[in-house]
Records
---
Amino acid sequence: MKYLYLKISAILLGLFIILGSVFVCLMGFFAKEYLQETNQMLYGNIAEQMTKEVKPLVDGEVDTLAIQKIMSSMMVINPAIEVYLLDTKGEIITYVAPYKRVKAENVDLQPIKEFISAEKFTFIKGDDPRFPTEQKVFSAAPIMENDKLQGYLYIILASQKQASAIDYLVNCYIPSLGVSLFTGALIAALILGLLAIWFLTKNLRRYVDTVTKFKEGDLSVRVCKNAKGDFPVLGDTFNAMADTIVANIDELKSVENLRRELIANVSHDLRTPLAIMQGYVETLLIKDDKLDAESRKKYLNIILNSSEKLSELIAQLFEYAKLEAKQIELKKEPFQMTDLVQDAFAKYQVLAEEKELTVQVEHEENLPIVFADVSLVERVIQNLMDNALKFTPKGGVITISLEELKNGIQIKVADTGPGIPAEEQAFIFDRYRMTKTTTTNSSNNGAGLGLAIVQKILELHDATIGVQSKLNEGTAFTFSLPTYAG
């Protein structure tokens, strides 16, 4: 916060210096213009007054005595002026100027005519015959004889001597005055500016204090609504960010707890088949000579079944880890859902007969094709069927049904098993939990990864899975896939 305050102060100081320099330059320029305008305002009518007193041209000829009289009068008023007598075309007939240094032979009459014709005072500059590249303030008047224009009396009011005095004033006194005024104004502006910055950043300092407390571990600190001041968006953004961080921390803590629960459950599931395998292998080794062929075969089958369960569990763990890490890419293609369901029916009919269960398929005719990853959808149906076979008692029925929706097809896998209590239905897709239905039947114990894998696969397809279940009546899982639009 200190560095921000110093940076703003430095920028403000730099801006003041730039503006002050521009101000001093403009002040000198306009002061010079103002002095010339004042000079022309005070002495702009002297040419007219002179032509009323004397006639510098008589019958088109220069009256020397008249010119001398004019110069005597001008020297009294302003000894630094320059007097020019012009003909009707602007040619210089004669002149009286310091050092007789006149470079131009004529003068542009347009500014002179504008000056003479102006009804009220107008600041106008004209040619300076001594310095043709410069413009000077002047006084001018027409020379009339018998109502006929004979020429012009043209008087340069800002001679070189006067211009030098003005330049000295502009280059020395005015900059000195401007710097003094600017320095005083700069100090006052800096003081007021720093106070203004301090006041405007008051709420920002509160934000910094709040962020510092949050960084130091006070996760409950927030920017008060009354303290948002001039930065309400910043306050709202910080509060939203803090809420998100706290929510993520809580979620991570929850995930960590659930991860530990998963490790405990998986460890138990891995330990059970390993213990069975180890026990029967030891039995075979100890009673090798005493076992008959039938017992030996029975023990080996038990070992084989346990190893298959262990392999299946490990495969599920790897599959779920890939899905959760999003390492599986969808390979969507159009396919007929009825064909996939018929394949599943043919596969599980044999398994169902071994458990004395009935598997049936229900679907409408001429259903549209769907657009999804065939292998992953097949995995979803396989896991749902495995789940149904696991919990459906003898004599039960498992039904796979397809129904056409507006923009897709709904797939349902229903069974007539024991059902799931209503309070546990929200957790059945959680990989870390097991329902009472599974825990009360030791043969069905498991980490609950089958339904968790189903949910992850459907999430990849931007689909959801729903469950409907009643105790002692059965459970139905439903999900939908979009139809192929191509």
Note: The domain at 329-482 is CATH 3.30.565.10 (Heat Shock Protein 90).
---
Amino acid sequence: MTLPLWFQVSSLVVLSAVLIADLLLIVWRPHVPSTRESGLWVSLYVALALVFSGVMFVVGGEQAGAEFLAGWVTEYSLSIDNLFVFVLIMASFVVPRKYQQEILMIGILLAILFRGIFILLGAALIASFSWIFYVFGAFLLVIGIQQFFSGREDDIERENAVLGFLQKRLSMTDEFRGLKFRITVEGVRLWTPLVVVLVAIGTADVVFAIDSIPAIYGITESPFIVFTANVFALMGLRQLYFLLGHLIDKLVYLHFGIAFILSFIGVKLVLHALHENELPFINGGEHVAWAPDIGTWESLGVIVVAMAVAVGASWWKLRKSPLVGADPGV
């Protein structure tokens, strides 16, 4: 599967323009978006992703279109878990809502940067070492099992450790001053909480990039599809925060769906590695004929069903136990 160079370049230019426009919108019109506005923006970005997948079907064929669609759904699912950590960080520091848009946009840009780095690294490893799929598969299985049993507790402990380390070593004020990192109070230079918030968000971005990139390489080996699927998954994440931020931690079964997806892709990668095996100590270096290679459409179906069941079960439980209290992001 080879996508035309003109299509890849023009796609990256358009995506860059959309991200820049989104960033400029925050600068020109800083405000707290309403639920209706957030919903419209999220719908727009989802529609753009679906349109792009349709273009992929036309330009690259069924394989490219299916791989992008499955990759985007996978990364969008994992990004929702990323969003939970953003909610946690904002709540921990009681970040004023008027500053949350700017901070979230910086966090999303950092996520794109880190994922771009890991995408290039993953592509280089795949090109150099055919057995790397065993490593990716085993890693995702471990992460999936860990997520299944511990849920978000590991995320919370990691963020608390980072925040506690920085707070003990930096002279800080409790006051936010826009996007300023340092301020002077009675002649003393102090750090603002913003620096710790951004370090915590950056740390979360790195961890989620390490989790998500092997997962999508289990669906496609095209760096272009991997990158565009990640960008489309992250686009609109800021608006999704304001749309569902206060409900994210109420989706109590979401981590089970994500754990299942990670474990499923881990198994898929191991089976793919066995199917293409070249390691001499496994089956004498020959391909393992009985190992099935799970197709892209089958993968997409499993991922959609897993997320639908997890979200549906969470909403059912939420209806039985209605949300009480205010938005933790306030």
Note: The chain has eleven helices and two strands.
---
Amino acid sequence: MSPSWLIVVASLLFATMGVFVRLASHHYGSGEIVMYRGVVGALMIGAVSRWRGDSLRTTLPAQHFLRSLSGVAALCLWFYAIAKLPLATAMTLNYTSSLWLAMFLLGGAAVWRRKPVELGLVLVAVVGFAGVVLVLQPTIEHDQWWNGLAGLLSGMLSAAGYLQVTTLARRGEPESRIVFYFSIGGIVGGAALSTLTGWHEHSWSSMGLLLAVGALATAAQLMLTRAYARGRTLVNANLQYLGIGFSFLYGVLLFDERVTWMAMAGMVLIVGAGAYATALHIPVLSARSLGPEKR
């Protein structure tokens, strides 16, 4: 499967996971969902790796630690923003990751004086984010700016995590190993957050929701990791906007959310931005261009 199609399928799986996260949030806190998502992911990857005879031992523990730190911190900040802000606002702030990614890559090009990022893709990122705003129609009250900052930081840390995934893959780490250590980070971070906020009892139905969240997240994360390892960074980032379109459709079909002309216009911008990104054939800056080969 091509990197672009991997992103499309991963976006659909993440949107489906979001439905189960919403249902599970009636039974568990955010930290618990993050932790159990990591538990399911680590067990799935560990079992498959053992069956295939693959090793999960790494020679890059520091890089995996940084990737897990940024990814888990982004996830926790996003859940915090969801708890403190309107859901649409928190979602929009998290999807600024593509804009942060474009700024990181442009900054790397300026510092290292390598081939610059294709500005058409940067423009696509901005157009795609405008589509996100139209679909979600976010608002922030005057007394919620600190909470909004948490959501904005979640987008920035997500972008940093994508670059770290690219770097790990370039150094020979398979996607299963990258996702495994990210899952371990989720277990540790989620458990720490749950210790502070409290734990909840299980039922068979609630455990089923957690299992669905973990399985969907792991499959989507593996696809996402492979796409960022093989594909063009900003193309992948732009295609991820499709997740908003999928989530919007789930909201209409499952949660009776209203369809507005602004939302429909936003979906057109999101899909159009992703299609235009894949149509551009000019190579873009990758993680390799952020610094020397042995950074």
Note: The chain has one domain: 3-290.
---
Amino acid sequence: MLTTDLVRTRISEGRVIPEYLDPDQTDALEKAESLVELFSKALEEGAARGEVETAVDRIVGYGTDFRIWRGLAKLLYDRSEFETQAPVDPADIRRSVFQRAAQSEGRRGDEWRRGILKEAARELEIEPHEVESGLYADLDERERLEAFDPLEPRALLHRYNLALAQAVLYRATRLEIELRDLRPNALRYLFQSLKFNRLMHRVRRTDEGYQLTVDGPASLFNRSRKYGIHMAKFLPALVHLEDWRLRARLDWEDEERTFEVSSDTGLVSHYSARGQWKADEEKHFETRFDEIDPDWNLERRGTILDLGDNEVIIPDYVVSHSDGREAYLEIIGFWRLSYLRRRIDALADREGLPLILAVSERLKAGRETLEGSPASVFFFKSVILVDNVVDAAEDVALPADRVADGEPLA
């Protein structure tokens, strides 16, 4: 992702407007191609990080547009892996060499130096030239390029534009998203990404589709950086839809600004729109559930449930008992007390909706605590306990024919 110093925007009538690149511009394509070729060649040669940085400096230069090319290079560094190359730990090499050098204080010269290296090599059971090359191999500039995931120059320019929009969202205090792409698979993909990133949100039906309201990272203060990363990761999933519009309120340089982007902007997602979005805690939870309680079954069903007043909810699971009772389970990540209370109040007003809320205590924003929470709400820190889910399900589950029907996502 782009760092703050690489973000290029302008302000017009209170709006923050990113200065996107034209992915068809010849100069931009040529510069992107030269940078990709640089990293690919460096991988072939096993170049050191310092050598790569020097070569990047030569291409980027220091003209008025250097921030653009620095941004492209930053994205390529993110696709690279540098590793220390040494036969043994460089710290052990330095210890052996420095001890011998200290013991022979007063002697200097090439012959003395070669002797120190040979003695250290014998102790470490490596060659003298390996002692010399490995002495400071763990310094950042001497790490070697071990892996690089290349991409086409035009794809790099598209990645830059998306990263630029993502960087703006770090300053968001609120997002309003209009969805008019109603393809079931597209919606399922989007909602799974929304919930995987644990974004605080409300979903409402509209005449044309759905409206998402998402609280932004700047509204969480002490969690802003971590939450902002989740927000940025969600944007590529939204870009996959064919018809959408996002309007954000920003806290931009101590001024309230707005940012708008839509399917007409021309952003291109690098995500593959397939597969399941599952957090590690959910994978562990699913495995443990199957092992612990044979009477209750856990199923991802992908259902949109009406809460009344056009508001809907998309729970993560359906929990069903062998006797036919069912309940829905939603996992809530980042939250504020007001957000959680809205969820609970909506449940209180909706009969026939046995919904369990598993709430992450670790990801709450603020110090307030929920007093007198209903049995269908429980908190967890790092692991969702199966027993807590089963206990809540025993309290709220209803026979399947009494459970409110939902609209399937697929």
Note: The domain at 280-408 is CATH 3.40.1350 (Trna Endonuclease; Chain: A, domain 1).
